[in-house]
Write the C-alpha cells for this entry.
Amino acid sequence: MEFNILVLVSLMVAFVLTLLSGVVYIDFLKKRMYTQYILEDVPENHAKKAGTPTTGGVFIVLPVIAASLALLTMNKSLTHNALIVLATFLFFMFEGLTDDMGKIKHKQNKAGLTAGNKLFLQIAISVLPALYITLQGQTYLNIGQFSIDLGYLYPVFIIFFMTGISNAVNLTDGLDGLASINYAIASLAVTFICIITKQTDLAIISAAATGACIAFLYYNRHPAKVFMGDTGSLALGGLLGVLAAVGKFELWTLLIGIVFCLETLSVIIQVTSFKLTGKRVFKMSPIHHHFELCGWSENKIAVVFSLVSLIFGSIAVILFKILW
C-alpha cells in the first residue's frame, strides 16, 4: 500500500484551517444571532442547547475544499473525479445552509426546507455525479472479485444511495460531537481505501475531511460551542456518498458508515412499527436518543458509537485490502 505524504499534509492543513477559522466564524455567528432552535420532540435536557450557534458546517466544508484544491494542485492530480466530488460537496453545503437559514429566519426548527424540497434538492445534486459516473461506463458494483453491472439502473441506484447517506449523517447529528467523531473515523477508513486503490486525488479530499472533522470536534464536543447544522451534516453525508460512488466502493459504506446506517435503520423500524402496530420499538429514534433516555450521557454515547465505527471501519479496510 503506497502512501503519498501529501495525503497526510492535506489532513493537517484542513485541521489547522478548521481550527483557526472556527474562532472567527463562531464569533460571527454569535454577533449575528445565528443560533439553534430546538425541536420539541427530543429529550427535555436538549432545551438548554437553544441559543448555541449553528451553521458550523461552513468552517468544515470550506477548509476541506481549500486544503484539497491546494494539495491536489501541488500533486498535479486535480482530476475530473476530484472536481466532481468537490462540486457535489459544495452543492450539498449550500442546500444545508439554505435549510438552516430558514430555521434561523423564522426562529423555528421546522421552518427550514420542507421534506419534499430537501429531497428534491438532494436528488438534483446527486444527478451530476450519477450521470458523470454512468458516462464513464462505470455502472458496476463490486466487492472483491464479485461484480454486477447495473447498466442504466446505476444512476437511479446512485441517486438513492447518495440521498440516503446524506440523510443518514443528518440523522446522526443529534448529540454533541456524535456526527463529527463518527464521520472522522469513517472518512479515515475511506482515505485508506483510496490509498489502497491508488486514487490519490480522492485520498487527499477524504483526508482533508478527516482533519476538518477532528478539528471541528474541538468546538462541537460536549458541551458544544457550535453545531454543524444541516450545513455540515448534509454536506458530509453527500461527500461520503460521492467519494464511494466515484471511488467505486459503494457497498463498503455499509461497514464504513455502520453508525449512520444503524441510526437510519432505527428510524425506519420505529416508524414502521408504530404505523403497523401502534407500538414503538425504541424509547425514541434515532437510536442515540433511545440510549439517552436509558440514562447514558452524551459523552458516553459518542464514545461507544465511535468505538463501533472504529471497529467496523477497521474491518472494512482490512477486508478491502485482502480482497483487493
User: Anything to note?
Assistant: The longest helix spans residues 5-32.
